TrEMBL record:
Gene3D superfamilies: Glycogen Phosphorylase B. Residues 15-60 form the Glycosyltransferase N-terminal domain. The lineage of its organism: Eukaryota, Viridiplantae, Streptophyta, Embryophyta, Tracheophyta. This is Glycosyltransferase. It comes from Cannabis sativa. Its EC number is 2.4.1.-. One of its GO terms (molecular function) is quercetin 7-O-glucosyltransferase activity. Belongs to the UDP-glycosyltransferase family. Keywords: Glycosyltransferase, Transferase. It catalyses: 7-deoxyloganetate + UDP-alpha-D-glucose = 7-deoxyloganate + UDP + H(+).
Length: 492
C-alpha cells in the first residue's frame, strides 16, 4: 500500500469535502466545493452511499459537476442497514452516531490508498474540509496522516459561539434549567450576547436539566475541536455577525467568513456568464409552484417551509393550516411526506376549499428561486441557517417557528437584533397567533420590515461583490489551499 507521504510534490491541490449527510449541510458544502472548483482546485466530495444514491436519482448532479475536470464524487457507508430510516432529526442523529463509530478506519484507509479519493490529475488529498460535526474524527486522521484539516460549520456564528461558551455558562450556575422556571431568564455568560440571550433562545441541546448530559458534552467537545483545526469556515458575513465573530477569533484566529455562500456562488457564476440552475436537493423538487407563483400579485404570497428534518403533530399542522387560511393571504406551503407524525386524518373541507382558492401545496420546492420570486412577500420558516441567509439575501421578512439545534438562536437574532422578522418562539402555536403574525408581516408592519430587509440584503450583496469581505476571504482561502502542495506543509 502506497502511503500518502510517498507521492511526488508536483500535483495540484485536492480538497476532500466530508459533510454530515443532511440536506442543509450538503447544500452549503457543495456551494463551497463548486467555488473552489471554479478556481481550479480539485475537489473530492465524499457522500454516504445513501445520500449519493438520492442525489443521482433526483438531480443531474454528475452532469453538473462534470464541467470541472478535477471534481469527483466518492461514497462511504454510514454503517446502518439499507432499510433504516434516514429522515427526521432523530434519524440523522442515528446516522451521525453510526458514522462516528465506524467511519474512521474506512476513511483513513481511503486516504492511504493511492488514488482512491483522487484522479491522475491529482491523486492525493492535500486538505480535509470536514463538517465541524466530524471535527474530532477529522482532526485525529489529519494528525495521523499529516494532512491539514479545516472545519466547516454550517450553523450561524452565534450558535457556534454559544456551543463554545457552554462550559462557562455551567460554571456560572446559569445551567441547568431548573424545573418550570422563567424561560425568559437572561444568560449572561456568552460574550457579546449578555443582554439578549434568554433560556428559551439557547440551542436545543443546551436547554437541559442535567449538566452531565452526554450529548451536550459531545457538542462542546466537537465545537472546541475547531480551535485545533488549521482554520474554521463559517457561512456568514462580517456585517451580519461581526461582533460575535470578533469573539470567535479569540479562540479560532483563522476564521474565514465566506457567506452567504449561495449568493457568492451566484455572483461568481454570473461573472462566468453561467446562470444555469441546478438542484442540489436530496428531495425531488416540484417546480409547478413556480408557474403558480407567476400568476400571483406582487408580494402577495407567504411561503412556508419547515426544512428537511422538522416533524410536527397533526394538531400543530391543523393550527398552522387554519391560521394561514384565516389570514386570508395566498400561501405556498412545502409539506413533506414525512413531516407529520402519527396517522393521517381527513382535512376539514373548509381548508381544502380555501387551499384550492388561494394556496399551493408541494412536497419540496426550489427554495432560492421561490424566495427570489416577486410574488413572495413573507417566509414562515423553521429558522435553519441556510433558509435564514436565503431569506435575508432575497429581502423577504420572516416569521420564525424554530424547532431544534441552532434554530432557536437564529430566530432570536432575526427578531431582536437584525429586525428582519418575528420570532414565534415562546408563543403557543394556535391559529389566532399564526393569522395575526401573517397579517403583521404582510400588511401591518410591512413597510418597517421592508426597510430592514432591504438594508440587510444590501450588506449581504456588498459582502459577495468584488472587494467585499466574503469575496476577499474566499480568495485568501483559495491562496492558502494552493500553498498546501506537499506533505508536511501547513496552511500559513
Amino acid at each position: 500500500m502506497e502511503h500518502q507521504t510517498d507521492r511526488k510534490p508536483n500535483f495540484p491541490p485536492r480538497v476532500l469535502f466530508f459533510p454530515l449527510p443532511a440536506q442543509g449541510h450538503i447544500n452549503a458544502m457543495l456551494h463551497l466545493a463548486e467555488l473552489l472548483a471554479m478556481a481550479d482546485i480539485d475537489v473530492t466530495f465524499l457522500n454516504t452511499d445513501h445520500v449519493q444514491g438520492q442525489l443521482q436519482q433526483r438531480t443531474h448532479i454528475q452532469a453538473k459537476y462534470a464541467a470541472y475536470p478535477g471534481f469527483l464524487f466518492r461514497t462511504i457507508p454510514d454503517g446502518l442497514p439499507k432499510d433504516e430510516p434516514r429522515s427526521g432529526e432523530q434519524s440523522i442523529l442515528r446516522v451521525l452516531n453510526s458514522m462516528l463509530k465506524t467511519t474512521k478506519p474506512i476513511l483513513k484507509d481511503m486516504l492511504l490508498s493511492g488514488g482512491v479519493l483522487g484522479s491522475d490529475r491529482s491523486p492525493y488529498v492535500t486538505c480535509i474540509m470536514a463538517d465541524g460535526i466530524f471535527g474530532s474524527l477529522a482532526n485525529e486522521i489529519g494528525d495521523e496522516l499529516n494532512i491539514p484539516v479545516i472545519h466547516f460549520r454550517t450553523i450561524s456564528a452565534c450558535c457556534f459561539w454559544i456551543y463554545f461558551a457552554i462550559p462557562d455558562i455551567i460554571k456560572a450556575g446559569e445551567l441547568p434549567i431548573r424545573g418550570d422556571e422563567d424561560m425568559d431568564r437572561i444568560i449572561t455568560r456568552v460574550p457579546g450576547m449578555e443582554a439578549i440571550l434568554r433560556c428559551r433562545d439557547l440551542p436545543s441541546f443546551a436547554q437541559i436539566r442535567d449538566v452531565e448530559d452526554p450529548q451536550l458534552h459531545r457538542i462542546v467537545e466537537v465545537t472546541r475541536q475547531s480551535a485545533r483545526a488549521h482554520a474554521l469556515i463559517l457561512n456568514t458575513f462580517e456585517d451580519l455577525e461581526g461582533p460575535i465573530l470578533n469573539h470567535i477569533r479569540t479562540q479560532c484566529p483563522k476564521t474565514y467568513t465566506i457567506g452567504p455562500l449561495h449568493a457568492l456562488l451566484k455572483h461568481k457564476l454570473t461573472k462566468r456568464l453561467s446562470t444555469t440552475r441546478s438542484s442540489k436537493s436530496i428531495f425531488e423538487e416540484d417546480r409547478s409552484c413556480i408557474a403558480w407563483l407567476d400568476s400571483q400579485p406582487l408580494k402577495s404570497v407567504i411561503y412556508i417551509s419547515f426544512g428537511s428534518l422538522t416533524v410536527m403533530t397533526r394538531d400543530t399542522l391543523m393550527e398552522f393550516w387554519h391560521g394561514l387560511v384565516n389570514s386570508n393571504k395566498r400561501f405556498l406551503w412545502v409539506m413533506r411526506e414525512d413531516m407529520v407524525a402519527g396517522e393521517d386524518g381527513e382535512i376539514p373541507p373548509e381548508l381544502v376549499a380555501a387551499t384550492k382558492e388561494r394556496g399551493c401545496l408541494v412536497g419540496w420546492a426550489p427554495q432560492e428561486e421561490v424566495l427570489a420570486h416577486p410574488s413572495v412577500g413573507g417566509f414562515l420558516t423553521h429558522s435553519g441557517w441556510n433558509s435564514t441567509l436565503e431569506s435575508i439575501v432575497a429581502e423577504v421578512p420572516m416569521i420564525c417557528w424554530p424547532n431544534a439545534i441552532d434554530q432557536t438562536i437564529n430566530s432570536r437574532y432575526v427578531g431582536e437584533v437584525w429586525k428582519v422578522g418575528m420570532d414565534m418562539k415562546g408563543h403557543k402555536c394556535d391559529r389566532e397567533i399564526v393569522a395575526k403574525m401573517v397579517n403583521d408581516l404582510m400588511v401591518e408592519k410591512r413597510e418597517e420590515f421592508q426597510r430592514c430587509t432591504a438594508e440587510m440584503a444590501r450588506l449581504a450583496k456588498l459582502s459577495v461583490d468584488e472587494g467585499g469581505s466574503s469575496y476577499c476571504n474566499l480568495d485568501q482561502l483559495i491562496e492558502d489551499l494552493r500553498s498546501v502542495q506537499q506533505p508536511g506543509m501547513s496552511i500559513n
